[in-house]
Amino acid sequence: MDARAPSLSAPIPRRSAWRLLLAEPTAIGAGCVLVLIVVLCLLAPVYAKDIAHTGPDATHVTETISLGGHPHDVVSPTGVPTGPTWHSRFLLGADKTGRDVAVRLLYGGRNSLEIAALATLITMVLAIALALLAGWFGGFLDTLICRLMDLIWSYPVLLLGVALGVTLAIDGIDLGFVTLHGGSLLLPALIIGVVYIPYMGRPLRARVLELRRSEFVDAALQQGLNGGRVALSEILPNLTSNVVVFAPLLLANAILLEAGLSFLGAGVQAPAPSWGTMISEGTQLMPEAIHLVLAPGLMLLAAVVAANLLGDTLRDLLDPRSRRRRVRASARGLTLAPLELPPPEAGPMPPAEPAR
Amino acid sequence: MSSRMRSLSPAPLSIAAIAAIVAALGLGGCGGSGGGASTASGPASATVLDGSAPDSLDPQVGITTTSMEATWNVYLGLYTYARANGSAGTHLIPALAAELPQVSDKDTLYTTTLRKGLHFSNGAPVKASDFTYAIERAIRLNWGDKSFLTEHIVGAEAFDEHKASTISGIQTDDGSGKISIKLTSPYGAFLNVLAFPAAGLVPSNTPMKAQPNDPPPGVGPYEIEHVVPGKSFEEAINPHWAKEAIPGIPTPQLTIDVKVQSNVGTQADEVFDGEADLYDWNTPLPPAALQQAKREAEDRYSVESVAQVSFFFLNVSKPPFNNLQARQAVVEALNRPAYERLASGYLKPGCYLLPPGLIGHPSSPCPYGDPESTGDVAKAKELVQQSGTAGEEVTVWGPAETPHREFVDNFAQMLDAIGYKAKEKVISPSTYYGAVTNVKTGAQVGFAEYTQDFPNPVDFYQLIDGDFIQPEGNHDLSLARDPVIDNGVKELAQLPASELPQAASKWEALERHAAQQAYVAVIGYQEAPKLTSERIDFGGLVFSPVYGPDWTTLKLK
Amino acid sequence: MIRFALWRIAATVAVLFAISVLTFLIFQVIPNGDPAVRLAGRLANTQEIHDVRRQWGFDKPIYVQYLRTMEQIFTGKVISYTQQVNVLEQIGQDLPATISLTVGAGLIWLVVGIALGLAGALLAEGGRLQRLLDRLLGALAMLGISMPSFLLGDVLLFYLGFKLHVFPLGGYVPLTQDPWAWLTHMILPWISLSILTIGFYSRLLRAGILDTLSEPYVRTARAKGLSERRVLIAHVLRNSLVPIVALWGLDFAAVLGGGALLTETVFNLGGVGQYAAESIQHLDIPPILVITMLTAFIVVLFSTITDVVQALLDPRVRLRS
Fold first, then answer.
1. pLDDT digits 0-9 by tens, A38-90
2. Cβ contacts (< 8 Å) between B142 and chain C: which residues?
3. What value of ipTM does the predicted structure carry?
4. pTM of the predicted model, to two decimals?
5. DSSP letters along B245-258, please?
6. Chains contacting A with at least 3 CB pairs below 8 Å?
7. Angle ∠(B476,B478,B480) on CA atoms, nearest 5
8. Are C176 and C220 in contact (CB under 8 A)?
9. Strands B520-531 and B421-427: what pairing?
10. Which residue spans within B280-370 are E strands per DSSP?
11. 3-state SS of B475-512?
């Protein structure tokens, strides 16, 4: 079971990491693509209002548009939506309910990215907290947290996600301090966030254990500092580079899982769009309207590839075992922190259990 | 680094891999023995496709149209529907009963006689008491519509509640074949109830347990064999059928292989290519297949009406739809042609609760706008303003299935356009009806569709009849309590089916009143595709308005 | 070894117990999810719903319901709510499709993944053109791990199925019925399912080989005058394959246990994964319970097998208990 859990090792100084990153054309390219997608999606209201002249949920089933002077049904009498017009209205075509696909693509991107970002944040916060608790206090708490993560890990990811999604979509969930409604975006974010906790929590816990035994922590404790404060002041900062490596990879996985959940009807709730729900709706109209699958599909692919590339490069740069890092660093004349012994398995970080 | 190395032997890896594969194939062996190739001997067979599996092939359990389509030719009861197209197919004819019943004692006592010399498909003789057993079995197995039995037959309720060991209102005599049924009060649609496959006779020694995978013997042209749950089953010609010679029920020529194919595109392709012979009428043809059908299969494709109504219920117990003007506004603004397109053309726009073709459907124009128009949003907006409900929040409920979810998208947009703040609540279809029929849920507006249990207006009117309001399993989703409707239905429900045509004008008056009050915003009536393969005699295939295509009339050209 | 076996068995039982409880709880909290309402039919009245509730035991306390369901599962009598069929029989019928998918895709992603990983590593050590090819392979692998299987499946179905009519439009034909049709129906699902894993394995293997090549013992082996081919196969590949084997076991197990919900649904294979997806849509608890337990069981089983295989392959790995 441990084979999938990635392993992490010593951090390197943050500033040199930044400089290394900026020297990587792939990283810059991937970062630009991500930023571009985010900006486009943020501009969704502007596009909708000033270019497409319609909202994301506005239906135009029985309307016609003029294409080259000829009237053209937005949705045909047999229910087939128009394909891309390459005009300002229905640039990428319409969906079954006569909604503008381009507008929904941007709004859907907002939802998809928002969920993915929130989920990533949730995973990071909870994984760090659990890893610190387990790694620092050890004993029963450690066993408990590890078993809990094992449980989530051995539960089939998609089954767990869809099960939670379908059940919670009906009436939401009351967490005591906050009530999430069935249609809330926080709901899929929470589900995805929880599902990926072990993916990040396990290697982080191992890292905390490692740090716990290190000399500087011992030194701090011998100075009579409070244990909890040492954990926060000495160990937490040392987790930064590990966390940074995980962030883009988690983001990529979260986008994919959101799409998977939505594809099975357990993600974003109607009428709100997301890339996953759009692909799912398009699949139902498959041979007639492939644009409904391709438009959100390509957008999703671009975002995931960019996030994965970014994560990959970051890891190459921050991972002490990486050949690329050593080569790059020496080429730039940088010195790196002394390397620790690599763990038995080497190689790129395994993916989180995929939604297949 | 340790340099303690052994020479690599690839054995462990490949052994594990082979072991895994062997184990996997071993499992495959015991699971894959279900489907056998059909044998060449015996009568020719036709392949019928189902979009979803029947909920149960046990006649006293099955409740979906898919089940009843399969069981009504296997489990004949005392009466059945004439095997005819259109409204002729709504007429009841004697099946296992020798004649239509004599009704006496103020329309509450039905007496009839069983035909002589009937046999079940396993060869056992049919007894009059098997009828009682079938009714008791439907009640004990909690058949979904058992209230038709428990509410109308004397003693059926006591039997249901385990207060009696048999139904006191049903008397049978195995010697003479005489059967008499006593009703609690006159009920005009009782013969329709007796025509349900659930009232189809099964031998009295059939276990009092659902038998969906090994359905019991019955009396009918077919018998069910080789059930592979959720995947396929066969209907073979009942070997004893030829001897029964019941007039009006055709003798089948083909055995039927029923296959579940949930992908409608594949379903259509299989019928076009001749791999299968009959497309499932419950699933509209997808657009590409529809074009292909119109282009290449004109002589074997048609659209049939099935008494069904699609509507949005408007909850009159809550604002804003406790206001007549608000309800009127919704109906005025409905863009019914849009719903027609969302349903790929398989929806006939209309404004009355009763589908066309059914007795009681008015011919007069709709009270609020022409159903063929795209709706008058401006007028509706004004009405909403006048009603003082503008700006209220409305949550539209709907099941997450195509095209109903699209209906909900469109409806919510319309509510926004006429001055409300609409939200959507689209949930799993399997929980949807449970949620909205629970009064506690308090759904304001929601989509609903209703397919008749039997062709009688009374069956549709439970949808807006205050007497059908109940905390769970509520029928009157609008919670309308209108004395005109409640009393009208009470009176009309007592008329026997034979007097229905004379009561048409009374039903029509009720219809106009209901449409005026706009308790439900009717969108239209679902229609069904009839599509066969090239080798089938298309014209000869009877499409029953109650149970769809009659498989006994499937013939090769 | 016995301790290891006992420990694994105990762990498996614990995991299965926890998973079944969790699943049961998740579906128990569903508001409006009352199975009695669905079982009673669409227009059932309160009395009928009550009858069904009593008949199926939904009125009992939750732990009684749980124990009853578990008893039914282990005596092979568990019945689904929607179709009211025996769940284990249903899974038995769905298994051939899932096994066909798993075995085919598992072999493809193992063989192609290793081949591409090896090729990448060799090319990376080569000249300019070779390095360019390596980068191309790397880009393809990156695309592979970023592609959702259902998107790829949709696109393949559209272009190769609907447009070019090269492959059928989904569905499953048993191997015993028509081997050729079986193959044509399986090829697209295999591809859709494999791409992601191929992308990942090839990256993992490539990096592993490159790392191992710089290890001192490889240099020693080379210095001893062993042929480059022998060094590569006997020393480098063998070590780099260890994590692949471990992952392969887990991936294989996950798909075999019905984990490929999306692929099976897109291609309408009617396997265990699709059964799981459909059961979730219908909130049909018994099949969901059985399938999650099945998946978890197979995953634990295969992870044990791969642990053993790993220990045999790599002397540094010890079986832990």
1. 999 999 999 999 988 898 988 998 888 888 888 888 888 888 898 888 888 88
2. 39-40, 48, 51-52, 55
3. 0.86
4. 0.84
5. --TTSPPP-SEEEE
6. B, C
7. 80
8. no
9. unpaired
10. 301-305, 308-314, 347-349
11. CCCCCCCCHHHHHHHHHHHCCCHHHHHHHHHHHHHHHH
